[in-house]
Amino acid sequence: MKEATGTVTAYVELAGQGAYGLALDGGGRRVSPMSQASPTAQSVAAAHHVQSQVVTNAQSLAASSNSQVLYTTHNLQRGVALTGDAQAIRGLAGHPDVVRISRIVPKERMNAISVVGTGALEAWRSTGATGQGVTIAVIDTGLDYTHADFGGPGTKAAYDKAKSSPTMPAGSYDPQKVVGGYDLVGDAYNGYNAPAPDSNPMDCSESGHGTHVAGTAAGYGVGADGKTFRGEYSKLSSADVQRLHIGPGSAPEARLMPLRIFGCSGSSSMTGQALDRALDPNNDGDFSDGANIVNLSLGSDYSTVDDPENTMLQRLIDKGVLAVVAAGNAQANLSQGDVYSIMGAPANNPRR
């Protein structure tokens, strides 16, 4: 950021604790969202107050730097993503509420071959653990929740109806599988224009990346008849799985929370907002419905050590959330800007 010129997108971290930290016992007790603790009126009010403060500060910083607000964060940490002239944004460093300013590197979709030999089938048989009670936030291109792999109708008509709606139509998805979710960007977003969010995280038909990723993680599976598989996973044999039209995901009974940060094409600078949203998907100050796992099958070949999303990921991990992140295919660039404690990256945890 120090040497950046021209128009950039940067994240400005603000002083003060995030709303999630304030909701804990003094912000010091490490609590997993698995606890599903009920919120108090005081904690909800505190969360809304933090959000209001961040929005006010963001608007002030944007005005003083002649920048545009891309998004704000208030759950994990207080901050604002700004797009504007690099020199003007650097000038905000002297503001008393500014902790640090980091350039946001646009992220691209990343994918790999299907899971082979993971041992999931044996794990289902020996432990019975199939993902029940776990919520996975898939930060990606969205989710075709009408697909039979997720308990939807599995028809083109259902997809077309859902795609044209600003919200998720009742009857187009399985509420036991798809919980929460939000479109942070809209179809036309390409990583450089203004996002147009709504409440329908439907994947684009020409993309399907997020749908594929979600299926690998937590799809029910689809039988040879095209219907959602509803059998017992712990009793499946390798031959049974091979006879399915679509095999189950690694945790087929986990819930999915699609957080859409990509439009139908291009890259994205919205990862940070999705990480923040994963703790409170409907933005109501109640953290009991937050994700237990965040999946990011995305990245950049050339990132920076002070990428703001690294800090957000570390703070999310500190809250007890497991992060599963694409390692990438950039060879020596894999370790640049690496984060400890995540699945999918070549790093060790120094605190264990």
From TrEMBL:
Keyword Hydrolase: yes or no?
yes
* InterPro entries, sorted: Peptidase_S8/S53_dom (IPR000209), Peptidase_S8/S53_dom_sf (IPR036852), Peptidase_S8/S53_subtilisin (IPR051048), Peptidase_S8_Asp-AS (IPR023827), Peptidase_S8_His-AS (IPR022398), Peptidase_S8_subtilisin-rel (IPR015500)
Task: Report the domain of life of the source organism.
Answer: Bacteria
PROSITE patterns, from UniProt? Answer: SUBTILASE, SUBTILASE_ASP, SUBTILASE_HIS
A matching Pfam family = Peptidase_S8
Q: Which sequence ranges form a coiled-coil region, renumbered to this chain? A: none
Per UniProt, which keywords does this protein have? Answer: Hydrolase, Protease, Serine protease
What processes in GO biological process is this protein linked to?
Answer: proteolysis
Q: Where is each Peptidase S8/S53 domain found?
A: 131-336
Q: Name one GO molecular function term.
A: serine-type endopeptidase activity
Q: Which PANTHER family match?
A: CELL WALL-ASSOCIATED PROTEASE, SUBTILISIN-RELATED
Family recorded in the similarity comment: Belongs to the peptidase S8 family.
Question: This chain belongs to which protein, by name?
Answer: Minor extracellular serine protease
